[in-house]
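Tokens in:
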């Protein structure tokens, strides 16, 4: 079912710095609504709540037969829940404005409380300036920052398969061959734990996500 572009509702206090579009670009695109927030981490110097130690299971004696407790038969073992499907948000943008829209989405996510290490940004066309700069120091240094996981990480669609899953994945469909978007969108959907934000042409995005997700 095709996705309908959302009209995000943004509280004034949650607005972060807006990227200034270059001359000739379209008007600023709508901002997404931040996805579910992760559980709060304990503050430095204040340890989190201590979990009680699990009960020790003792092996029955030789010849002993396990019997139900006084409360009745043992409860069945619960099965693990199925993996959650990430929420998908579409931000309409031209190929020229998709990267600006992605940057604005990242700013809003961070302003809403998301940790920088929660966010992965994938580009289908021109590399993000941060990625181009860091790759100038070599791939080893570039991927070491990915493995550290303490900041927003930017990856080209050609190498995004090497990136690990993160709670939020933002895709900027900023040009490149059609195959780049066709490969990047299903991959981003698989890497996103809670929220997938896609910035680009709605018709192209819906055709790819509808077939690949």
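Residues out:
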């Amino acid at each position: 079912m095709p996705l309908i572009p959302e009209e995000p509702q943004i509280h004034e206090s949650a607005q972060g710095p807006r990227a200034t579009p270059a001359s000739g670009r379209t008007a600023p695109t709508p901002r997404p609504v931040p996805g579910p927030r992760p559980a709060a981490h304990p503050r430095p110097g204040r340890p989190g709540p201590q979990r009680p130690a699990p009960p020790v299971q003792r092996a029955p004696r030789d010849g002993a037969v396990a019997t139900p407790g006084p409360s009745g038969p043992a409860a069945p073992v619960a099965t693990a829940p199925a993996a959650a499907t990430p929420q998908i948000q579409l931000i309409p943008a031209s190929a020229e404005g998709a990267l600006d829209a992605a940057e604005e989405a990242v700013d809003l996510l961070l302003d809403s409380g998301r940790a920088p290490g929660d966010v992965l940004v994938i580009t289908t066309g021109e590399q993000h300036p941060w990625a181009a700069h860091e790759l100038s120091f070599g791939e080893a240094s570039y991927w070491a920052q990915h493995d550290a996981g303490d900041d927003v990480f930017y990856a080209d669609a050609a190498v995004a398969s090497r990136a690990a899953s993160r709670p939020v994945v933002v895709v900027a469909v900023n040009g490149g061959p059609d195959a780049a978007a066709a490969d990047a969108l299903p991959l981003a959907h698989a890497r996103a734990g809670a929220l997938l934000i896609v910035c680009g042409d709605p018709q192209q995005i819906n055709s790819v996500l509808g077939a690949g997700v």
